[in-house]
Amino acid sequence: MEHVFDFYDKINKITSIDEFKKSLESLLSLCGFDTYAYTIKFPESYHDQTIGVLHNWQQEFVDRYVAVHSIHCPRIIHLWTSEVPLIYDNHFLDDDMKQLPHRPEPVKAAIEHIIDHGYHAYGFSLATHGQWGDRGILTLQNRDRKKDGLDAISLSFHVVSAFFPLLHMKYVELCGWKPPGSRFDLTPREQECLRWAADGKSTWETGMILKLSERTVV
To answer: Measured between alpha carbons, how far is 185 from 191 in angstroms, rounded to an integer?
Structure first.
């Protein structure tokens, strides 16, 4: 438990991306896993987004997975849209293999890519999000199906679940990323009008509430 509190203190003191990467490696050692991948999605507008990956996986695997397979992989689709974690235990991995012949070809290719590179193994993936639409996924795994991989899940899952949101917030801070809306200088009155519009008010209704003409609201 003492090591856990030490790690929490270290997160708060991180000042660079390099230190952040070292903290992820410390987390691996603390939890008994061999590999990690931290995937980050930053919305740059309503239509565009930036995705980055910090990892100690095989670069060949990551390049192909991100460029080709991630949009079809049921794991990544689930984690981008849900806070429910994925736990890669015997039940999950065996069910993956049973369903594989019946999957659509793009999904089958994504899972086979994971299998071929040795990442069809014990571990878990967690998802979290920030207040501005940023999102992160953290995967910790051992590249085998030995019993100690299952032990690592049971011993560390709750600890990593508690730390991951803080890690993600720290990374966003270190990147200096700002949400698209913060790049426009809006007056307090303009912000009020937008808030009422988001609440479903018409320009006439907003004008009545704020004691402005409808033209001014527009």
So the answer is: 10
pTM of the model: 0.81
Q: Show the DSSP H helices in the chain as ranges.
A: 2-13, 17-31, 59-64, 74-81, 90-99, 105-116, 147-175, 188-198, 203-210, 214-217
* Residues forming beta bridges with residue 124, ordered by sequence position: 87, 140
Distance of CA 129 to CAs 9, 111, 138, 214, Å? 21, 25, 11, 37
Say if CB 191 and CB 181 are below 8 A apart.
no
Burial of 98: CB neighbours in 10 Å, binned 0-12, 13-18, 19+: exposed
Which residues are within 8 A (CB) of 17 and not within 5 positions of it... i.e. 6 or more apart? 171, 174, 175
Tens place of pLDDT per residue across the chain (218 aa): 446 667 778 888 899 999 999 888 888 888 889 999 999 999 876 667 888 999 999 999 999 999 999 999 999 999 999 999 999 999 999 999 999 999 999 999 999 999 999 999 999 999 999 888 899 999 999 887 877 888 899 989 998 998 899 999 999 999 988 777 665 677 888 888 888 999 999 999 999 999 899 999 98
Q: How far is it, in rounded angstroms, from Cα 80 to Cα 41?
A: 9
Closest-CA residue to 70 (of 117, 36, 33, 107)? 107
Edge to edge, the sheet with strand 86-88 lists 49-55, 35-43, 135-141, 123-129, 86-88
**Widest CA span of the chain, in angstroms?**
70
Using DSSP, state whether 109 is helix, strand or coil: helix
